[in-house]
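re: that complex we talked abt at group meeting.

here r the seqs, copy pasted straight from the sheet so there may be weird spacing, ignore it
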Amino acid sequence: MNMAAPIKPAPARARLRGERVTMAHGGGGKAMRDLIEEIFTDVFLPPGSEDQARMTSAALAAPGAQLAFTTDSFVVSPPVFPGGDIGKIAVCGTVNDLAVGGAQPLWLSAAFIIEEGCEFALLRQIVASMQAEAEKAGVRIVTGDTKVVERGAADKVFVTTSGVGVIPAGRDLKAENIRAGDVALVNGVLGDHGSTILAARGDMALSTDIRSDCQSLNALVEAVLAAAPSARAARDATRGGLASALNEMAEAAGVGIEIDETALPLRPEVKGVCEVLGLDPLYLANEGTLVLFVAEDEAEAALAAMRATPAGRDATAVGRATAGPAGRVTMRTLFGGQRLVDTLVGEQLPRIC
Amino acid sequence: MRYVEEFRDPVAAKAVLAAIETVVDEIGATAEKPVHIMEICGGHTHAIFRYGLDRLTPAGIEFIHGPGCPVCVLPMSRIDECVEIAERAEVIFCTFGDAMRVPGTKKSLMQAKADGADIRMVYSPLDALEIARRNPDREVVFFGLGFETTTPSTALSIQQAAREELSNFSVFCNHITVPPPIKALLDDPHMVLDGFVGPGHVSMVIGTHPYDFIAEEYGKPIVVAGFEPLDLLQSVLMVLRQIRDGRAEVENQYARVVPEHGNPVSLAAIDDVYQARPSFEWRGLGEIDASGLRIRHAYAAYDAEEKFRVGYGAGPRLVAEPEGCACGLVMTGRIRPTGCTQYGTGCTPEMPLGALMVSSEGACAAYYQYGAMMTDDPAPAVMEAAE
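got the structure back, here u go
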């Protein structure tokens, strides 16, 4: 991977005054330049100083290679929570969107919409998280944007990341590849992120040690693809949880999917949160968990490869694709009964009585 | 996990299911001539379908889904009144999440919120009280909804507001009670009911004696049940045994939570704050005597109907159900959700026609979500009165 050399970091001198972002910092003048340089570019060190990043990559030029391109916005509240913050998710989310398509992530952009009054300390924390996660994932944040809006027009800070990656020749992960008999694997426990956010919001007066599972999965995906080259498709189980990801895949592939309730990996604390609040863990958001379909004869190898990586220690099989009605996801319950696992409608709400 | 996993043990379930099969045979019930058991509470309806109990139990048992879903029995006119209150500029309208998607004549609370009304989802009336304390210049109204399970906490919030002399907090009271609609169903000549699975959490508040009339005056068995699959299976077994033996008694399967005489603190709070309305309108059941609660005159300052001059006494409101909506028939067990012409087509969770598709305890929502009619040979969708 060829990249233009980063500009030399500016000497560390504090130009920003005060503790919070004001409308002046969004004005396009000196104050804005100070904000951008001190908070963002002094940390991210983008190559060059033009509006656009100019990148070359031999991998992209290889015959049969494809460019992968994705974007995501992040508005999580609260912005900081056990296990991460909005910055960490912004990097992991986009890296993972590339990874589940079989792409090797290369570069990210990062755009920030900042509410007037947002503390510099919060922004610094978010940026530090993003840089740390980018280094872990082996990607660079190469360009970005900053806007400031009046108090109330945003909730502290919203982040949008777009990402580019390269899909090597010969790789074609897509839901349509899934056929009856293929095995569904997940790389770890379900529902940690959703539970963490619910508890962190403070509405529920819940006290728990759960942390978000937020992590980059590109290294794990590479390991699995090396061990199971005919892997069919993968999806990260973010908003809407595992159930939503499976419904999308079943629909696209025109297959049925059956999962096994006893096989679902869940922490006892997450089970507890779900029981108390009347939530279904199948629908809780994850930020470091994917579901992957492989041919039956590659399932063992795929699991072994996942379990050998830090992000896949608790990897397990949860079900399989069937010849059942297309697009229908069902679950064999604890009792051997069967129930439908439909797509979520609206937001999951705790029961009232 | 304690108090959960023991009640979901598949081995124990198998044993109970086997016992159920035996008793169903002893009764001689079949798919053509089933035993009709009504589970009153919407939470039970959902539990039955979530665990697939409808298909695990023999075909000789027909579950009839009762009206125990407080959101489902709300007439559309009450939602209209909520929207009317919520759309006032000075009001912060607080409600449980479930009620937000129920359609009114023109819009739901969720649509009113998108149109600019300050409507907030809360998990308890105490949250609404806190909002009132923090916003002294706004009128905070809590949509008090539910059977006896939630009635005490609303009462406590009103008592607390009175102690603090809060002038900006009131409750739009839609609390209802369980025994009257059961009596209405038992009086309905079209209903064929052989026994009841009684509500668990309502009974935690009121105890088991309010159901004595079911056994003593109508000669039907009722078993108060918990919500785990084993609770429900055991309760069904207990009902079946009574039917087989020709008994009609009130039994308590949920004894680990339900005390025979209920919860005295809750009952005292309810008695202090509320009185029964002469009658109350129930979607699908019409007007039922003494089935709804209104806030007593002593607490009139906390009664949103008084403050905003809406609701009963404010004028005639009779709102017809939308075309094709059969919520009333489903709720009284006359038809299955799949027997409604709109089910799954004109009425879905995304675009509901009526409350049974919206509420997390509605029978239609349960059918839709858990795929209750996934089998190839659906059972008859319409109930016939037995000769």
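couple things i noticed - The interface with chain B takes residues 203-204, 268, 271-272, 275, 278, 328, 330, 333-340, 342, 345-347, 349-353 of chain A (CB under 8 Å). The CA atoms of residues 131 and 313 of chain A lie 25 Å apart.
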